[in-house]
Structures
1.
Amino acid sequence: MKHTKIKALLESSEVGEKVIVKGWVRAFRSNRFIQINDGSTINNIQAVIEYENFDEAILKKIGTATAVEVHGTLIESQGKGQAVEIAVEDVKILGEANPDEVQKTVMQPKKHSLEFLREQAHLRFRTNTFGAVFRIRHGLTFAIHKFFNDKGFYNLHTPILTSSDAEGAGEMFHVTNFDLNNVPKTEDGKVDYSQDFFDKPVNLTVSGQLEAELGALALGQVYTFGPTFRAENSNTSRHLAEFWMIEPEVAFNDLKDNMDLTEEFLKYLSNYVLENYADDLKFLNDRDVKEQSAKPAKDRNPLTLIERLEFVANNEFKRITYTEAIEILRNSKPFKKKKFKYDVEWGVDLHSEHERYLVEKEFNCPVIITDYPADIKAFYMRQNDDGKTVAAMDVLFPGIGEIVGGSQREERMDVLKKKCADFNIDEKEVWWYLDSRKFGSVPHSGFGLGFERMVMFATGMTNIRDVIPFPRTPGNADF
Ligand code: 4AD
Ligand code: MG
């Protein structure tokens, strides 16, 4: 007989059936009630034993974290809190866990700080919070592929090792095969990359966009979903050195089409989690309510986690231009009272304090800001007719800040070449990208969703380190 997943058992009405369950003990009370979890759901199944019928040596081994195999009959629960439970006929110990050692870990059933949980990232999967977060992370991954597949997009695997700097921000991790204690040098003392593995400097990708554009200009609509790497030394709750990004790219889409696609996509993802992860969401919602109530009133989110997801699913995003955003900010109370740390004037990049003001105070809803000054955005963005701004868009979410960045791409060869010059990009380095503008160039657009920022939004976790299994941040690449 095969064992049944606990999720299926709890949903089944096969009372009276013989069942086998395999999982890890969460708690063992009164020598009688074993709470077992197998990861298929946040809910445990209760296995009830008549301890008089069991070998004491076996009972002694049952405790938090022990792996067990339980044989018994599914019965209607005698107690409160669950509909069904297992009347146990046999228990096998599959893997022991020393209670003294368990006590020192995050598996000990009590409240632990998220910092402590991070130090034990290898064990935090065993907790309710992280079980819920990683089930939802999976659900979002699946929903993303489903959304694009249903729309006829093709998933494209773009390179992870690359010689280009797509964003031009110079925040790349270099990849080399050199013995770093003995690096070959040219006659003038520079590193001789011609002797390296790829014959030239190579880095980990910061974005798959440039390659995705090439795909879109033949396959019509494509998307990437891969790891991206940024060596930005910003130790914040929203930045990782290794994060996952989803980058759709669509031929013939202009900026408005791009915004419409983004909005539909983010609504779809919010709905998907609401519809498919109710149990995990309920747990995280309660958790979030507790966290919010511990904050000072002015920092509290007026909506619960579930309400925030429903809000995104059911309300239109506000769309404003960068120029309008600057005007709103300059007329705001914090600006007039000199409460902003960074100055606001046309031409500067918006800082997170400004974005938060717009999203959380002024509009209280997701905001799409478009048409940024060309100087503060990447070289590939399409020049607007005013000659000053580009067809860029950033989507800002309450509590998260920037969740999506995108744009219409510059499809005109002459303008693109001029942008390369302005941004000091050697045409020889991006010849293949420029080539795509030579053969049937068309307007096209795309965006990048920071996957972990979406997982943060969907789970209510406020530190990005808590939505990826093993976070990589400055000074930390453990596990
Ligand atoms: O705005 P970004 O830099 O845009 C691009 O990379 C474009 N190539 C996307 C495109 O148009 N195809 O990054 C996109 C998103 C950000 O909005 C943010 O959500 C996320 O990626 N992101 C990060 N997430 C975690 N840690 C970091 N260090 C991140 N940097 C960007
Ligand atoms: Mg951006």
Note: The chain has a mean pLDDT of 96.
2.
Amino acid sequence: MKTVIFAVTTEGAGAAGRIRDLLTEENFCKGSDIKVYIKHKSDTLVKDRCVILFDREEMAGYVRREFPRADALIFICAAGIAVRMIAPCLEHKSKDPAVLVVDDGMNYCIPILSGHLGGANELARTISDRLKTIPVITTASDVAGLTAVDMFARSHDLVITDFERAKVLTAALLEGEKLMVVNEVSDTIDLMPADIPDGYILADSGYTSGMRDDKKISGTADNGRTAINSPGKDNEAGYGKKLRITYKKRGDHDEGWNREDMITLDLVPACLNVGIGCRRGTDRETIRAAIDRCFGLHNLHKSAIKRICSIDLKADEEGLLAYCNEEGLPCTFYSADRLKRVEGDFAGSDFVSGVTGVDNVCERSAVAEGGRLIVRKEAYDGVTVAVAVRTRMQCQKNRPRGLYVVGIGPGDEKGMTIRAREVLDKCRIIAGYKTYIDLVKPMLPGDKEYIETGMRAEEERCRMALEAAASGRGDVCMICSGDAGIYGMAGLIYELSCEYPEVNIEVVPGVTAALSGSALLGAAAGHDLAIISLSDLLTPQALIEKRLRAAAEGDYVIALYNPASKKRTGYLKKACDIVSEVRNPDTVCGYVRNIGRKGETVRVTTLKELGNVEADMFTTVFIGNSMTKNIGGHMVTPRGYRL
Ligand code: SAH
């Protein structure tokens, strides 16, 4: 697409540079197809390949010259300047290029000419998507409310394989012709009659599944949109302009490819997962060649690739990462264990098993999220490739799959952040440790689904939450007490999340026990604070002791979490002994139990007494620093003001 950008200010020149980079990155244009005209003095902002303008008159001359040749003109200036400049050049909407105006500050992007046919709206949306301008689309109600082909493709997340063809088809639509939509991937994309705009006709699945020979076309009437009741030649002739939703390239032998009245445009959904296995050190080009050959051989559109998948051993495989990076493709790596659990019939190999711990990498990783293998393991120059098509469950368009990891604070509703409360309300599924579920249940309406697990089943709990989110049943809220990150589930969710790439994660912070406890005690954490968990379930005892010593020596206020559990007793005493090695036995200490819950207890004491306190799993313990005071029964660590 030939694009010309004009900018008349220094700021505008910077914007021109960004738009040029975007258009080349998005493959809207080849670098050589973009020209940039900027005002002199601002040339440092767009370093190369631009023409310097001297004055308005000269600019008008360039506009006149470029207008008939370009596909798009982008003016970075006041709309008035652009309108005056293009006014003498206007011919006909079937010929005029797309014209857009972007303001200097890159706040707005306004298509002022050829919004549909010339693709100005589409271009404005692309620019706005990436550069965060606001697209000011003014054509919505014109052209009889018809949806241009590019808009149709866009609304279903389909890639247009040929913009020229898209333009011709939109032009036909505007002339009153009907466009037939042939959905060849109906197990991936669910097109309902309501998804089909006026002027488009959805061919039924009989047409798509190999019934071309008898040219059977049928459909049901729905506002007159999809009524094609009589099969036969007339229909075929009447609906020669087609949009094929497919990941398969058509061969040139396909009917009507070269006839003007029979134009077919392929619209491609990103629905293919490509599983890759390779030897250590395989370079980027070898990987590219393998994928290209595989896709060439099987007539697959490369724009249908949704993601590349492999085993986590390859997470640092430079060639593979470089390929994905260059193609802008996400890459998902699965553990051998996860791959082993994928059900199906795969081409197993003892060699692969010996190296990776699982008998097949490419096929299993391609279908790890579900879907159906369409190309089984093939080897090209040492790279194994398998391709799976994602089925409906995994890629219904734009369905949000949110997993919120929410810190609910100490326990009562008032200790929650507004955001946490909001998320609890909006999520349909609530997951968490039973005790916390019991805390929130009374605050919520009765129609929620709960996923409860016991104490030790953290990994299982997180997996269940991720699976629930991935299933698309609704947004999921995984609740943690206090803060979601501090000895909470947020980290584990992220660690497991690479296996569930379609799930969007948001962590909602909460008031951790060190803060709510400190406040109940007075101002226990008034200065530098070390939070240490005494639980040795996941942390070696020696490391806990080392940190205790370091915190004691550093004269930190120390907040001790998990000071005891039903099975672990004596830990608090041990911790007090360690701290007492360097701290005064009269150091002011405190502890709180069941903050914000039934049985809330707050006590201030000293280090020498603290070891004898009976802590339980709902207790948080505070050891003051050398400055901490007992002020009228409150534990206060001064900030250091001289009073
Ligand atoms: N994510 C939580 C901590 C979980 S670890 C948070 O940020 O607060 C569990 C430990 O946190 C408990 O053993 C206890 O030390 C502390 N804790 C959590 N909730 C508490 C409460 N309501 N009252 C007192 N201590 C609490």
Note: The chain has five domains: 3-138, 149-269, 304-395, 399-508, 518-636.
